[in-house]
Give the backbone structure.
Amino acid sequence: MTQKQYNNKVRITLSALYSLLLTLIILSCTKSAGYKKKLDVPYHKLEPQTVEIVELNNMLFALDTDNFLEEYRALLPKYPEVFYENPSDEDINYMKEFVSDTFLMRINELVNETYPDIAVVADEVKDVYQHFKYYFPDWDAPRTFAYVAGVYYNRPINIERESVMIALDFYLSNKDLVYDRMGLPRYMSRRCRPFSLKRDLAEGFYYKCRGNSVNQKSVIAEMIEQGKKFYFIEALSPSSPDSVILGFSAPQMDWAADNEGQVWATVVGNNMLFSNNLDYRRLLFNDGPFTSAFGNEAPARLGDFLGLQIVRSFMSNNDETLTTLLKITDYQDVLERSRYKPRK
């Protein structure tokens, strides 16, 4: 072979490799754009155009404890969505003790320091409301309340037919080490920051639509159901980064993205996918500071992470809507139709 022929062959080979690489990049971008394009919806002109948040926390903590019964009873008919019309003596005494507790009073002070302008919170709430209205046009926004819960609950935002209740004391960024004093583990309290409010509100709507989650029989079923939940959250709060959606720290999110292929290979290689083994389920879905089987840098709930990637791929490659996605229960079919390929 002459030098000229060799050079021509090298150029052809490099050209072919470049074309292949370009094709892979385009396919990758197209796959990514598929589900993201579905989430880019025209919501700005939908109702509600404004949201007023009733600061119930400040109203309650402002009550005069020396004249508590009269002032508390005067408050009840104004907000029938959240108060009983005729509370028992036990309920009244509990509320009086609640607003007289010095620790809870300090928590409410921290709420007001963190959220001096409730209109900022209202704008974020409106954004989620409008996204939900896009997917569920028959829904009308109920009255929205801010309050102090004082005790950690798994769902700091509760959505009912007549009200949306937002416990602002769960979004204080551990000021004054308040969550440490409440005994909340650090891996949970780092999620209690203002940027998690929209994400949690979106999750509240998920539970409104789906009811309480039920443990699935197999790993793949749980994985896809969790993926559906986090995709729903992303649909209602598409500006939230993956770390917030999944509740990971930024380094944990990086680890999950960098090791996606390894985790998937472990799941498939150990025949976990279609198993209902409780140890596998704990490994992949239990909350905690990390997943020791993969190292202390690996986040817990890696099954949630994989589930979201599968559902994203499914939505990119299939003509499905958010509402039809929620109804699908053939999990093997979802996996096959997703054409999911983990990042190496």
In short: The chain has 17 helices and four strands. Confidence is low (pLDDT under 50) at residues 3-7, 9-14, 20-31. The longest helix spans residues 3-39.
